[in-house]
Specification:
Strand content: 15-25%
Bound molecules: uridine 5'-triphosphate
Distance between the termini: 59 Å
Oligomer: single chain
Number of domains: 2
CATH class of the largest domain: Alpha Beta
Order of helices and strands: EEEHEHHHEHHEEHEEEEHHEEHH
Number of helices: 11
Helix content: 25-40%
Strand order of the largest sheet: 5-4-1-6-11-8-12-10-9
CATH architecture of the largest domain: Alpha-Beta Complex
Shape: globular
Radius of gyration: 20 Å
Number of strands: 13
CATH superfamily of the largest domain: Spore Coat Polysaccharide Biosynthesis Protein SpsA, Chain A
Length: 295
């Protein structure tokens, strides 16, 4: 039987964003602007670039601005039309028509695994992508496309992996890999936030996943784990007992904007890439480095 196409993405965006307080006290971290776009818009654009046209965003309390962002705003459109601001008008309309975007509320932020489990009704018996709403990939959607291609080849779940120094691995879900090629591993085991001495490798799971629908059965078996949260990592460990899981290793281009330093890095890199802002911003950075004696 042919492997079904991956057309759906689930974007969990219901977390409390405590690492980015006070900015996230009254606004979702997924709406923090990186240059001039909220973080979650980069994530949705990446999904669309990888051929996804059905997106389910998992939201929660205080996340209404997120829905407004992808909705039409007739008052604004009328104003822009009146002022002859055609470019901005076209941009606002395109934003609302980018993809078929749905929302479901998580109710209580019980953990990433729990957030994914509330997508079950929408996703049904289909393979789907999970993209963390606060993880930005500066890669034109290449990693996600390669992961979807890997799923199409094997018909099995694929998680994105990145190398981390031993001192940082304890902050992530860490895999025990069997190397297949430079970019591909088979996942033999997976553990959430291991102590550095218990980490099975230096490869950590990062923000992008392609899942077979069996992950939902696995999630039902998972009890609260590290931090009292329902961990997606624990569900992947359960899934491993019945299905092979692959890991796609990528080298760079990912920013966790829920972390202040990564947020700053993403802002600088994305601003430098912009045709309209990049050259002036570059000059400013060079001048600043000179002024501070950093070059
Ligand atoms: P994080 O662990 O980065 O989100 O989850 P958090 O809990 O909001 O962060 P801190 O540690 O308090 O700063 C990764 C993604 O999963 C979502 C978050 O919104 C984020 O996009 N998430 C997390 C949920 O949707 N629900 C949850 O219960 C937890």
């Amino acid at each position: 039987m042919a492997t079904p196409h991956v057309t759906k993405a689930v974007i969990p965006a219901a977390g409390l964003g405590t690492r980015f307080l006070p900015a996230t006290k009254a606004q979702p971290k997924e709406m923090l602007p990186v240059v001039d776009k909220p973080a979650i818009q980069y994530v949705v654009e990446e999904a669309v670039r990888a051929g996804i046209d059905d997106i389910l965003i998992i939201t929660g309390r205080g996340k209404r601005t997120l829905e407004d962002h992808f909705d039409r705003n007739f008052e604004l459109e009328y104003y822009l039309a009146q002022k002859g601001k055609e470019t901005e008008l076209a941009e606002m309309k395109a934003l609302a028509e980018m993809a078929d975007i749905h929302y479901v509320r998580q109710g209580e932020p019980l953990g990433l695994g729990h957030a994914v489990s509330v997508a079950r009704k929408h996703v049904g018996d289909n393979p789907f992508v999970v993209m963390l709403g606060d993880d930005i990939m500066v890669d034109d959607g290449v990693v996600l496309t390669e992961m979807i291609d890997t799923y199409a080849h094997y018909g099995r779940s694929v998680v994105a992996l990145s190398e981390f120094p031993a001192s940082e691995i304890s902050a992530y879900g860490c895999v025990d890999p069997e190397v297949i090629s430079d970019d591909l591993v088979q996942v033999r085991g997976i553990v959430e936030k291991p102590a550095p001495e218990d980490a099975p490798s230096n490869l950590a799971v990062m923000g992008r996943y392609v899942f077979t629908p069996e992950i939902f059965d696995a999630l039902e078996q998972v009890r609260p784990g590290v931090g009292g949260e329902i961990q997606l990592t624990d569900a992947i460990a359960v899934l491993l007992a019945s299905q092979t899981v692959y890991g796609w290793v990528f080298r760079d281009g990912r920013y966790d904007i829920g972390k202040k330093l990564d947020y700053l890095r993403a802002t600088v890199e994305l601003a430098l890439e912009r045709e309209d802002l990049g050259p002036d911003f570059r000059d400013f950075l060079v001048e600043l480095l000179d002024k501070r004696g950093l070059r």
